[in-house]
Amino acid sequence: MLNGVTVPTAIPGTQPEFHFPPYVSSIARSPRMPLVLLPETLSERAGPVFGRGLIRVNDNDLTAQHESQPLGERIFVHGRVLDEGGRPVRGALVEVWQANAAGRYRHKVDGHDAPLDPNFSGAGRMLTDDEGRYWFKTIKPGAYPWNNHDNAWRPAHIHFSLFGAGILSRLVTQMYFPGDPLQPLDPIFNSIPDEGARNRLISSLDMTRAQPHYALAYAFDIVLRGRDDTPFEETRR
Amino acid sequence: MTESGSLVPSSSQTVGPYFRIGLKPLDRRPAEAHETSARTVEIRGKVLDGGGLPVPDAMLEFWGANSSGIYAGAASEPSGCPAGFHRVATDDAGSFSLTTLKPGPVPAGAGTQAPHLVVLVFARGLLRNLVTRVYFSDEPANAADLVLSQVPEDRRRTIIASANSHNSSLFHWSVILQGKDETAFFAW
Fold first, then answer.
1. Rounded to two decimals, what is the model's pTM?
2. Are B129 and B188 in contact (CB under 8 A)?
3. Is A134 among the residues known to form the active site?
4. Do A11 and B77 touch (CB under 8 A)?
């Protein structure tokens, strides 16, 4: 009926395994039974397409969501969302969340003894433009301690959530910063076996987009699963 | 690069414990859906780990067709959220509740699939999201469903929500991340 087409699985080494003991929380929460091959049907090819109604003023300016500016180093983050064929993913919903400059999340279970910033919520939301581009303004998040192992610290990161074409193109990931000495020590970052794939989660300093006397900029491109098979040529990178 | 002109999909990382900051509930209430023939159903359950403990920091995303088996196109209504998409988080007891319109049979080749929702599972401790489906116990079409038939017979019940014996619009279904009653998850 469906010619035996199954959903393609990840390229080996480029995605973390569910069970990765150095990340202690994965031990009791990872499935152990074999995953079932999924025939590709309309349900997998379809996916939610979000609209402008979801986006409010200043959703992409995390420094302008309160009365005053948050403390910390102001930065721009920008990039492109592409599919596996290198084509831009247009209108993709991008949601981001992060700790403040002191390494504290505005969340009831974050018990880190670092100050909250009344001028920083740490959440943003945007849709990509026709070239698959997104951008937002924020402050650079701080590193913070966690309970995974003795004296464990997460490297600075911003959480990203994305929807592409089709529900299986869904991706939640984290963006890291270049030159952070905590990355080699972090079990979450190191859960990705392939070094190249791991390093693609590290943003790059982008002086072409830094604004003199105002803010540095970091570039972070994201590739979502699937490809748009429309038969015309798009710019590839 | 895997092949000419091909990019490698970016790697997944866990949503972590603080996802509620950025991943707010997304939901379009059934009342907005203008589907008079549709039937509202509620699915209630828990997310449990390998030790049987509730997972209070899990997020489930559900994606379903309408009662005619059609998936929503681009969201045009003011909410910006397409019909049939729901994002819910578990509470402190690991419980969740979803109210949605029961989907109809979805086309597949020359036939149809039994009514179902695609479910994505996210949590602290999950380095990638899990993919599964939930079916409904009151559907005879489950017996011939092409995706359910891929699941080993003794595990099919793990992705079929059971109708409440007193309330036919209430279904019970839990996500078991690990162990002997582990939910059937799909490779992707």
1. 0.95
2. no
3. no
4. no
